[in-house]
Amino acid sequence: MSRKRRTLHVPEPPARPGEQPDFSQLKLPKAGEALKPAVDGDAAEMHDLAFSLVRVLDDKHKAVGDWDPKLDAETLRTGLRHMLLLRIYDDRMQTLQRTGKLSFYMKSLGEEAVAIAQGMALRDEDILFPSYRQPGLQLVRGRNLVDMMCHCISNQRDNAKGRQMPVHYTWREGNFVSISSPVGTQFPQAVGAAMAFAYRGEENVAISWVGDGTAAEGDFHYAINFAAVYRAPVILNVVNNQWAISTHMNISIGGATFAARGIAYGLPSIRVDGNDFLALYAVTQWAAERARQGLGATFIEVFTYRGEAHSTSDDPTRYRPKNEWKSWPLGDPIERLKAHLKAIGEWDNKKHKALEKELNELVIKSYKKAEEFGTLDEGPYPPASTLFEDVYKNELPHLRKQRQQLGV
Amino acid sequence: MAQMNIVQAVNSALDTLLERDENVVIFGEDVGYFGGVFRCTDGLQAKHGLHRVFDTPLSEGGIASIAIGMGINGLRPVAEIQFSDYIFPAFDQITNELAKLRYRSGGEYWAPVTFRTPCGGGIRGGHYHSQSPEVYFTHTPGLKVVVVSNPYDAKGLLTTAVEDDDPVIFFEPKRLYNGPFDGDHTAAAKKWDTHPGGEVPEDYYRIPLGEAKVVAPGDDVTLLAWGTMVHVAQAAAARSPTSCEVIDLRSLLPLDLEAIVASVQKTGRCVVVHEAPRTSGYGGELAAQIMEECFWQLEAPVERVTGWDTPFPHTLEWEYFPSQERVMEAIARTMENN
């Protein structure tokens, strides 16, 4: 009998376009099942948390188990408002991109809870090293929508001075560090920032996010190792949204879970339902508290699904089933928090409709204001002389000469 | 012959190479099932198999290093780095390992790896999707460096690069993928069927590395360019009252010094045009070599028209991008003492 010739193994996702979404391989523990260790617990005793999934909201939309952060209704409503605003803002900006007002856009669809719940569990002094998929952090810290839009439409009031593509926000006042396109670079930088807090004896923490795809970059591993070695007060999150452009997580990881990688470096490592606002809040709060007590870093795998294309330059119908997001077994983070608020008698459809209307109007009003400062397709742009600013703190002679050559 | 754009020409070259040599393997981020974010490997996985055209984890350092290992062990890898701006995590593996492997092993080991990578600006990509990092590699002995400017060259040069036993960094200016671009962003986008380089043989052919091409003959000023700037230089030459000879270098290393010297000895003047920043750009190297070889024939200092010494901007892209006007001004400056 002839044996099939062996060759290189190359993994594939469970389903491709034209096939039915298949999440049958996911093992989803029940809400409330994961145990919550003491904040000062030994990392070696917490290995289960890297293979389980911290979930608080159950199928009946109730908060259950040790990880319930027991947030008051006002905080929950604030979280819902931020998530909804982020989604409406994203929709509006993506539509404007299609009409040429922006060169590019990236949505957070399906991942709104990541930036919002995690951001809300932190203090304003904590420093953020986000990837391009956590712009929602700015909403948590009260950034003016007009300023966010001015960046995205690359106009005169863009505080990044038109230097970056849209969605690459920077906001020093909000401790939100300038976003870079090369993936993962910010992860070890966050560890360095955390080491600086520790060096000065401050209680603040640093936090960073990368995607499942980025977990293959060297920077990812540098970060976890340095964080563990120096017990840096940092929270390192890998947002596993299943897809890195067309690269399914099966191509990013050969087995186990992303969270399990943290164990090998000696960090408490927790896998959490990324569409469960309460679970995310609780896990982040736990990690922040541990860091503030001088007990070092926590590694978190945020388990979620990228509902939209990677960016406006991407077409996911070419590589994944069309309705995959709708089949995601962990649902929609906004719908789940909304259902929870309703289940505890703190929200209803009428209020939700009114909130949607209010936020829609806010976004439209903000855009009208932002547009007064120009857009990418029509200008006006920052003056050409700004091209030569900020290369160095002070302009060097050769740059002065080049600026004069350009006649500005 | 067929009409192709650069995406199709690259695809055709890779398809032909996969057919001819079972040791050719292609991999990189999104190159397998999806066919690459610029579609250069579209359909190749379905045609040639999962193990020959495959997706990798997002790890440029990993991609470069497995390419070296495969190359050492008999394969002929063609790795894609999705944007040349993202090649730097692979820099150590490329410059310290791949480039020096043959030398450090006394000729015992080598790795015939080709890195394909889109470069250059003109697509509103900001500094992380617009850079032209060719000189980081020309400065490293052991590497060959190619920058293409049209579909015909892209297929012929890529075929030679992949079949070369030395490592080659193969730059594809992304602004040229779908059509020639002469720097005038206000004009309607052109397709490759308006350019002779859009005619590409469907069969196998090679263009040797290290042979520059005179794309427009002239008498008074030599314009040296590569990639997108070939088209900008040609347009500037056409508008200029001066008779200009435009040379597309095609490969920066090996460099066709003979063609450059022959032209500059004839014209006595030279303008180098490149997108990368000026300081330590390849224009400086060319100016030095021209001075060494043609000093007594030069009628004017060699001029450089380049990107500014700033990161590549987003909003002010067209203030950065070397324009036809800047090239024409440089031509005029070389003629001033005439």
Q: What would you note in describing this structure?
A:
The complex is a heterodimer of chains A (408) and B (338). Chain A is α/β, with parallel strands linked by helices and 408 residues long. Chain A folds into two domains: 43-312 and 326-377, Thiamin diphosphate (ThDP)-binding fold, Pyr/PP domains (Rossmann fold, 3-Layer(aba) Sandwich), CATH 3.40.50; 380-408, no CATH class. Chain A has helices spanning 73-98, 112-120, 136-140, 145-152, 186-199, 218-229, 249-252, 258-265, 277-292, 333-343, 349-371, 397-406; strands spanning 127-129, 206-211, 234-240, 243-244, 247-248, 269-273, 298-303. In chain A, helix 1 packs antiparallel against helix 10. With 338 residues, chain B is of the alpha/beta class. Chain B folds into two domains: 2-200, 3-Layer(aba) Sandwich (Rossmann fold); 213-335, Rossmann fold. Chain B has twelve helices and 14 strands. In chain B, the strands form three sheets. A seven-stranded mixed β-sheet of chain B has the order 3-2-4-5-7-6-12, sandwiched between helices. In chain B, strand 13, helix 10 (282-294) and strand 14 (303-307) form a beta-alpha-beta unit. The chains are: A alpha/beta (408), B alpha/beta (338). At the A-B interface, helix 12 of A face helix 3 of B.
Spell out the blueprint of helices and strands.
The complex is a heterodimer of chains A (408) and B (338).
Chain A: H1 73-98, H2 112-120, E1 127-129, H3 136-140, H4 145-152, H5 186-199, E2 206-211, H6 218-229, E3 234-240, E4 243-244, E5 247-248, H7 249-252, H8 258-265, E6 269-273, H9 277-292, E7 298-303, H10 333-343, H11 349-371, H12 397-406
Parallel strand pairs in A: 1-2, 2-3, 3-7, 6-7
Antiparallel strand pairs in A: 4-5
Chain B: E1 2-3, H1 6-20, E2 24-28, H2 44-48, E3 53-55, H3 60-72, E4 76-80, H4 91-98, H5 101-104, E5 114-119, H6 134-138, E6 144-147, H7 151-163, E7 168-173, E8 199-200, E9 213-216, E10 221-225, H8 228-239, E11 244-248, E12 251-253, H9 257-267, E13 270-277, H10 282-294, E14 303-307, H11 317-320, H12 324-335
Parallel strand pairs in B: 2-3, 2-4, 4-5, 5-7, 6-7, 10-11, 10-13, 13-14
Antiparallel strand pairs in B: 1-8, 6-12, 9-11
Helix pairs in contact in B: 1-7, 3-4, 8-12, 9-10
